[in-house]
Each structure stands twice: as C-alpha cells, then as structure tokens.
C-alpha cells in the first residue's frame, strides 16, 4: 500500500476519500479540509474520524453538558474537575479520591465477555492515569427480560467478563445494580465505576510540555483489535492476501493490566512522569492529540517505533488500534533510564516513540515520511458541536393524563403471597449468583459491599478514614419525567451514602440513552442533564465528570432513559458505619420519611405490566435534611436500609434476611405502605433507650418518623401475615440460580 | 525481636499486601520477596499469596513454579522451613511438588467468592497448631480453580497420615475430593490452603478473625525453635 503522505495529499487534492464510511458527514469533512488547507492524508482522516465520533467528541451532548460547569456548585473539595481523565476530590488527611463511571454497552452486546472485561480495563486505566491506586470497582448493569433467551447469552458472559478481568486485577467489586426491562434487550447496559486513591501531591494530568521531553508508549504491544471504521481505509487499498477483517471488540489481558498498574504506581512514586494518558477509545490518535493539546502543543511521533503484535498493520491502523493495556507518558530525558528500569522490572514493554517539540503542531512520521501534520487541538477538542432538535415525546403527556390500576392484596394470605412474589421477581431477587463471582475481599479494606446500600472502603488503617460509593438510577421515573428522574437518582444515591453513615461529597454519572438523532430521545437527554445539574447545585455537590452513551436502541425502540448516578461519600471512622441488616432482637423499627401511597413507576406496578403515569417530584430540601438526620443519628442506628426498589416490602425482607433476624410490624393501608416507592425514606433499627434521641432528631430536621414495629423471632410478621425466614430466603434466593444455572 | 516472614510477589499476585498485613497483625515482620530474586532475605517462614501469577493462562501456578525465588523456597522447605501457600500459593506448591495433587476448575465452572465454613482436621502442622482439634472456622473462599483432585492412592495416603488440615463444612463449594480445603506435607511445615485466612483477621473487613490463628500458629512455632 502506498503511504499517503502530507506531500502526496498536497499534490493530489482531489483524491476521493472514504470519509462517509468512516462516519464523517460531508460538512465535517469539508471542515477538516479548511483546518488543514488541503485534503487530509488517510492517517489524518482516520484520526479526525475517530476523535470526532460521538463517543470521543460528545458532539450531540456538549451543548447540554456545559450546564454541569455553569451551574456547578463551587466546592473546595474539588481538586480536578471535568475534562481530565477523571475528577479528583479531597477527602482530608492529604488523601485525594478519583472516581468515574464509563459505559461499555455496545461491545458487551456483541461479545459479552470481552466487552465487559475491557470495560473494566478501560475505567481502571482512567483512574490509574490520574496517579491513583485503583481500590474498588462497581457495576451498574441493565438487561432485557430475565427469561429472554438472549439475556441468558448476554448476562452470564458479562458477569464472567467483569469477574474474569476485575478479579485478576485484584480490585474488590463492592456494588452495582442489576435491572431487567424489555427495552434493554439488544441493548444491555454495562457501566463500570472505578475508585482510586492517592496523596494530593501525586495527582497526574494528561499534558505534554517541555521541549525535548520524551513520549513513551508502554504496556501491551499494538495489535489489530478494536479497529472499527478504520478497516474501511485498509480494505480500500489492501490486497486480498493481507488480514483485513479484524474484530472490532477489543480483547483484554488482565494480567498485562495488573503488571501495568504496579509498574505505573512505582513510576509515579519515583516521580518520573510529566504527564500521562491511557490509551482507550481512539488509541494513539486520542493519546497523542490530547497530550499535545493540553500541553504546549508541539509533538513529534515516529510511528514506526510503535511495537506491534501484527507487523502488517498500516499507519492508519496503528493510529486507530484500541489494543488494551497501553499507556503513554511524557518523561524528561534525564529520567528515562530510571523509567525504563522500572518497566523492565515488571516485564512491561516500553518504547520512546517521539518527543515534545517547540512548535504548535502534531507531526507524525512513518519511516521518515510525514503522514500527519495537524494542530492537535483541532483533533482533540475542536470537533463539531450539534444542537440537535428536541421534542417532548407524545407519550409523556398521554401517560400523565392516564390512570392505571394494579391489584392490591387485602387479607393476610394475599399480603404474604404478594411479598413472596415481589421478592422473587428478577429485579428484587437476591443477586448473589452474580456477586459471588466477584472478589469483594481483595486488598483487605472492604467494610461494606453489595447488597449493602453503598460500598464502603477503608482508606487509612491508622486513622480509619474511609469512602463510600453508590450508584443509582430509576429509569422508569426517568421515562415518565426525565427531569425529576435525574434529580431522584441523585437524591437516592446520596441517601444510600448517608444510610451507610458517610457524608456525600461528589457526583459522577453515566448517561445511557437512545439515538440523539431522535428529537424525543434528545428531549429526554436534555431534561436529564438539566435535572442533574439543578439537583447537584441544590444538594451542594460538585459533578466531577461523566460519560454519555447514545444509540442504545433497536430500530425505533430506545432504551428507557437511564442516567446512572454515582455518588462518593467520606466517613471519618469506618468502624462507625451503619450496616443494612437487623443485628439483634428487641430493637425498635422506624420508617424515616413519609409515603404517599403512589405506585407509579414502582416494581409492583411493573410486575403487573404498568409503568404508571407520573414520576414522584423530588423534594431536595427534604432529602438534604434527611441526609443530615442520618449523619447526626448514626450513633443510635443499629441498622439502616434505604427504601427504594420494591418499596418497604423489599427493604424489610432484605433487612431481615441479612442476619436472619425476624421482625414484627404493623402498617396502616398495608398494601400501599408495602409497595409504594415514595422516595426519601429509610428503615432504621434503634434500641428503645434511644427513643428520645430519635424523636428529638426528627424535630430538629423536621423529618416525620413512624415507629412500625420491633425486631426478633424467626418470622417477618406484617399485621396478620406471617412469613418464616426460610420461606423468604427460598423465594428471594432461588430466582437467579433457576434462570442462569 | 519479631520474626521475619517473607511474602512473595509474583507478577499477578493480588493478596500479597493482605498476607503481609496478617503477618504484621500476628506480631511478625513481613518482608517482601520478589519472584525474580532467589534471595530469601533471612526470613524464617514464607507465605505464597493468592492471585493470578503470570496471569495463570497456563495451569494455575505452572509458571510461578520456575521463578528463581521458588528454587530457594523448595530447598529450604525440604529442611523444615515453614511455607504457607494460600489459593494461588497452594496451586504453586502443588506445581512445585512440595504438595501432592492439583487444583482444578470449580465443579460449577464459576469463580466463587463466599464466606466458607471449615473444620480444622490437623492441629499438628506449623500453621495450624493454634487451633483446637476439630475447630470450626469461617473464612473467605475466592477462586475459580479450587477443586482439589488427586488419585485414590494419594487420597488414601493424605487421609491416613492426617495430612488433610481443613475440610469444607455445610457446603461443597467446588467439588474437591473428600471436601479437602487444605493439606500439608509429611513433616507439617508446608501447608496449602484454598480459602483465604489473611482476609479473616479483623471483624471490620472479614467474616471473622479466625484466619489470624494460621499466622500466630507459625510465629508461636518459631518461638519454640
């Protein structure tokens, strides 16, 4: 194949180029020509096409996402904000935490194991890149109906992939979600969250400055995996004898990533890098253009120096390859020897592929021929921005005007049957079949993990400082009202953090939606972003970063709008955390917060084929008071568990089953009280000697509290309904093994 | 003076820092040992930690066996030097022929992480001497290839010589022969255990503190020497 150089591009301005096949619109192609003053070389075209893709450029979401900056709560805790690989938050004692969620939805549908595995790999490298040791992962997952044949293909593969990769990295998996809904058939959502810890002075940024400093590529060798659109370029000119069909889903090697983590941490400790960037989506195109763009601007790369697994790769393919487990660092020449020695110790391949230059352009040569000559910012940051049409879908107002009815149990037998049915339903059933495939113990700092309200990790063994993380979404409420849905998801995530005894500190998000070219989906998205930005501001929390995943739809059917919200909290003494399970008999049970009996969007309604008509309206002022109530009352809570999916029924059952200690409660309006998912409620257990304190806290924070019963025995008794712990346990735990083996 | 216990890090070791924490909590001094060196740094006992050495893409532990540090450990072990292999460390000990048998894929083919009840069967080894005979303990189990297999003759020998040091109780997690969770060599200085005692040393982060006794047992034995 003839090398398409800058000289050739200048001499042959009219060569036809496959820009449309690479996903670029004709006006985008024209814009590249204007930027460069000539047609792009095939390598430049490849770089622009991936960097200007929706995934990398956020071209449809940018105009909305800027609200996260404009409305942002000014928090002193925010050390690094949106724009870097991941946000960084100060948690005190000179510790900084970085955390982020990303999606790996589409690859996980095509190849569940590798798609999910490399999703973990990618987010872990983002966290590592900030200078942090990764300390935990979480996985919010969404699938089609639990008994659908494709779910049986996708779910076990995704779970095995998350376990296979995460377990091998030595990262405890401390939580997540598993939700089933028919709209996720063909569009499973695999979101992966990673948390990392570092000292303030160890924060690293993705920047290349200092003329003469070296660009080092290290980690796995570059292969042909993950090359999507670029194979269009290749197939155009490659002869038939060459391997052209390559998988577009990357293949992970967790062992390579594990040694890369240890290697990087040793390099960071010795202070050997000026800037660092991982190679994820768009591979070297992304790493080189972003590093150069964030620095002084100039960089020279000798592309033939990139170590290859497949020597037949063309320069375009090398630039686009999404081979996993690779990092790119900027290293001063006097430190390169030390850098290389550490890489050698860990058997990590490291190669100097270029240097930072005094110019303002990114030059890439291949065997001495100039094939890329671009202003790096135009590749990395100045991609197209679309203000796509927005239209409120008709269904919203139609549903709002509609009424719905679901059967409600009345007598004791009905109540018992309803509870057993609810807790056996896939969305509420025990998820141990999944979570027991993940290592929650490694690193020895896991204080709480699933099914607790939040995952809680000890940061310092001497001072007992720790962090809590929770992820939440209620896509049905978002479907009914995306603005309220986003607010409620953030409120729930904060409540989960506070329920465990930690103080909410910062927010990340992963916004999963259908096609942005559908004005109805775009309306859902815009409303979601507006809701999240408003809620974060009102709750006084900075948004530290996030991820957008569009095109989660099959034909014209989009997934339910699914904004997954992650909240990070800090707890000064992890020994004082509040677990969810009832720990002893003879405690008093209280519901904190009032319910309104509405079943709209609830699991009970969903079980009867109804989505409802209206989302609850978030009362963030109350949620804030509730968080403070929970934090203040923490010393008197023997257990605490959020009321959310499945309502009080699910909360009671989960609280009882954790330590197999029963409870007896009396409820008015029993069916609505059990199944309504009215937000802003928590079930707590206290000693009766703490009655005065809880009453006075309720007064102080103006939160209604209701004593509903006491703990003890071997049954869950609700009014006249008596269900033994064995019956509950059987119903709760049998569903997943029956479905998935 | 506190006793020096080495913890080996192979590329891909995961529970090395946890094993070191357990050694320190038991009152010893944890000394990091690196796979690529044959220097035991004057330690008096060694722990081979859990993880996926070299990725375990071949048989688990099959490559770790050839690490320079293992030459020194195999030699020392034959002279009575205490060695505890946990999970991947157990697999490495089997591959190194310090212990008989092999660990194969769990019978249900899934990685399994759970709090597992064990019965301590032999309290005469260096690593189990602090337990009461027949004592039941709960410590985490977490692995994909934990099914202990050996031929009938070996099984008979292990049972008749009392070399089964711990057995799974109440629940069969992986299809191990005779529910074997751990075994020792003839002399009792080398012990392999599939579950993770280093993750049951504090009630805050583990299901119990039962695991600590493995480490205090060895340190007590060292005092006696």
From TrEMBL, chain A:
Residues 211-365, 613-714 form the PurM-like C-terminal domain. The keyword Nuclease does not apply. Residues 83-198, 452-571 form the PurM-like N-terminal domain. Pfam families: AIRS, AIRS_C, FGAR-AT_linker. Keywords: ATP-binding, Cytoplasm, Ligase, Magnesium, Metal-binding, Nucleotide-binding, Purine biosynthesis. InterPro entries: PRibForGlyAmidine_synth_PurL, PurL_linker, PurM-like_C_dom, PurM-like_C_sf, PurM-like_N, PurM-like_N_sf. GO terms for molecular function: ATP binding; metal ion binding; phosphoribosylformylglycinamidine synthase activity. SUPFAM superfamilies: PurM C-terminal domain-like, PurM N-terminal domain-like. One of its GO terms (biological process) is 'de novo' IMP biosynthetic process. Residues 20-59 form the Phosphoribosylformylglycinamidine synthase linker domain. Gene3D superfamilies: PurM-like C-terminal domain, PurM-like, N-terminal domain. Coiled coil: none annotated. This is Unannotated protein. It comes from freshwater metagenome.
From TrEMBL, chain B:
InterPro entries: Class_I_gatase-like, PRibForGlyAmidine_synth_PurQ. PROSITE patterns: GATASE_TYPE_1 (PS51273). GO terms for molecular function: ATP binding; hydrolase activity; phosphoribosylformylglycinamidine synthase activity. Gene3D superfamilies: 3.40.50.880. Keywords: ATP-binding, Cytoplasm, Glutamine amidotransferase, Hydrolase, Ligase, Nucleotide-binding, Purine biosynthesis. Pfam families: GATase_5 (PF13507). GO terms for biological process: 'de novo' IMP biosynthetic process. NCBIfam families: FGAM_synth_I, PRK03619.1. PANTHER family: PHOSPHORIBOSYLFORMYLGLYCINAMIDINE SYNTHASE SUBUNIT PURQ. This is Unannotated protein. It comes from freshwater metagenome.
């Amino acid at each position: 194949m003839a090398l398409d150089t800058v000289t050739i591009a200048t001499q042959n301005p009219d060569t036809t180029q496959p820009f449309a096949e690479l996903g670029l619109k004709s006006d985008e192609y024209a814009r590249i020509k204007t930027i460069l003053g000539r047609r792009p070389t095939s390598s430049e075209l490849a770089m622009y096409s991936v960097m200007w893709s929706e995934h990398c450029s956020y071209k449809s979401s940018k105009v909305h996402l800027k609200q996260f900056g404009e409305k942002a709560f000014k928090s002193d805790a925010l050390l690094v904000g949106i724009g870097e690989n991941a946000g960084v938050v100060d948690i005190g004692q000179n510790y900084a935490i970085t955390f982020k969620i990303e999606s790996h939805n589409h690859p996980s549908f095509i190849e569940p194991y590798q798609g999910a595995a490399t999703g973990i790999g990618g987010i872990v490298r983002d966290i590592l890149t900030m200078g942090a040791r990764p300390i935990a992962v979480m996985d919010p997952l969404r699938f089609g109906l639990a008994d659908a044949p494709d779910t049986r293909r996708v779910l076990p593969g995704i779970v095995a992939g998350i376990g296979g990769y995460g377990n091998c990295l030595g990262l405890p998996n401390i939580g997540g979600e598993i939700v089933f809904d028919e709209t996720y058939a063909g569009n499973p959502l695999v979101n992966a969250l990673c948390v990392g810890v570092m000292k303030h002075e160890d924060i690293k940024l993705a920047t290349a400055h200092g003329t003469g400093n070296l660009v080092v590529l290290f980690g796995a060798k570059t292969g042909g995996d993950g090359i999507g659109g670029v194979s269009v370029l290749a197939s155009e000119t490659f002869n038939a004898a060459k391997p052209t069909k390559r998988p577009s889903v990357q293949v992970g090697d967790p062992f390579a990533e594990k040694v890369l983590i240890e290697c990087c941490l040793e390099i960071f400790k010795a202070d050997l890098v000026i800037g660092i960037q991982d190679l994820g989506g768009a591979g070297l195109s992304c790493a080189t253009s972003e590093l150069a763009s964030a620095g002084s601007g100039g960089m020279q790369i000798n592309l033939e120096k990139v170590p290859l697994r497949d020597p037949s790769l063309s320069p375009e393919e090398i630039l686009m390859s999404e081979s996993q487990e690779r990092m790119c660092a900027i290293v001063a020449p006097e430190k390169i020897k030390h850098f290389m020695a550490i890489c050698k110790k860990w058997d990590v391949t490291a190669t100097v592929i270029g240097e930072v230059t005094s110019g303002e352009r990114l030059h890439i040569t291949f065997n001495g021929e100039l094939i890329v000559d671009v202003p790096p910012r135009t590749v990395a940051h100045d991609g197209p921005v679309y203000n796509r049409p927005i239209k409120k879908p008709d269904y919203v107002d139609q549903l709002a005007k509609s009424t719905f009815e679901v059967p409600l149990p009345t007598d004791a037998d009905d109540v018992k049957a309803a509870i057993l049915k609810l807790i056996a339903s896939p969305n509420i059933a025990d998820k141990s079949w999944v979570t027991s495939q993940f290592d929650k113990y490694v690193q020895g700092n896991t204080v709480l993990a699933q099914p607790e309200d939040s995952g809680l990790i000890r940061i310092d063994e001497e001072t007992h400082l720790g962090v809590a993380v929770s992820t939440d979404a209620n896509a049905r409420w978002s479907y009914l009202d995306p603005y309220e849905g986003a607010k409620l998801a953030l409120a729930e995530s904060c409540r989960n953090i506070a329920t465990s005894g930690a103080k909410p500190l910062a927010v990340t998000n992963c916004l999963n939606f259908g096609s942005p070219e559908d004005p109805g989906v775009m309306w859902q998205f815009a409303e979601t972003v507006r809701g999240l930005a408003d809620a974060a501001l009102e709750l006084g929390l900075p948004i530290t970063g996030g991820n957008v995943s569009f095109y989660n739809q099959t034909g014209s059917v989009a997934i339910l709008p699914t904004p997954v919200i992650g909240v990070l909290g800090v707890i000064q003494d992890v020994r004082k955390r509040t677990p969810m399970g009832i720990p002893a008999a003879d405690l008093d049970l209280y519901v904190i917060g009032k319910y309104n009996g509405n079943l709209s969007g609830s699991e009970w309604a969903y079980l009867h084929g109804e989505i409802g008509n209206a989302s609850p309206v978030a009362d963030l002022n109350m949620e804030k008071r509730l968080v403070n109530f929970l934090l203040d009352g923490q010393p008197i809570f023997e257990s605490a568990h959020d009321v959310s999916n499945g309502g009080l029924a699910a909360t009671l059952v989960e609280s009882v089953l954790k330590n197999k200690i029963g409870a007896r409660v009396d409820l008015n309006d029993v069916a609505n009280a059990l199944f309504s998912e009215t937000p802003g409620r928590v079930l707590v257990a206290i000693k009766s000697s703490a009655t005065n304190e809880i009453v006075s806290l309720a007064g102080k924070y103006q939160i209604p509290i209701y004593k509903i019963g006491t703990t003890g025995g071997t049954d869950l008794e609700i009014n006249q309904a008596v269900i033994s712990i064995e019956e509950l346990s059987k119903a709760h735990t049998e569903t997943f093994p029956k479905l998935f083996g | 003076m506190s006793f020096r216990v080495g913890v080996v890090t192979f590329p891909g070791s995961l529970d090395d820092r946890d094993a070191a924490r357990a050694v320190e909590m038991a009152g010893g001094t944890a000394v990091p040992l690196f796979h690529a060196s044959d220097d035991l740094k004057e330690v008096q006992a060694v722990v081979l930690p859990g993880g996926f050495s070299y990725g375990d893409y071949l048989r688990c532990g099959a490559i770790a066996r050839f690490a320079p540090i293992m030459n020194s450990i195999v030699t020392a072990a034959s002279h009575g030097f205490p060695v505890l292999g946990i999970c991947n460390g157990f697999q490495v000990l089997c591959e190194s022929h310090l212990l008989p048998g092999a660990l194969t894929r769990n019978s249900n083919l899934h990685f399994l992480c759970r709090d597992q009840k064990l019965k301590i069967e032999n309290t005469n080894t260096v690593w189990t001497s602090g337990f009461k005979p027949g004592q039941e303990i709960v410590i985490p189990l977490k692995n994909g290839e934990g099914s202990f297999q050996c031929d009938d003759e070996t099984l008979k020998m292990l049972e008749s010589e009392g070399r089964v040091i711990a057995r799974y109780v109440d629940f069969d997690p992986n299809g191990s022969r005779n529910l074997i969770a751990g075994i020792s060599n003839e002399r009792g200085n080398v012990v392999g255990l599939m579950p993770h005692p280093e993750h049951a040393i504090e009630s805050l982060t583990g299901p119990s503190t039962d695991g600590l006794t493995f480490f205090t047992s060895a340190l007590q034995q060292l005092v006696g020497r």
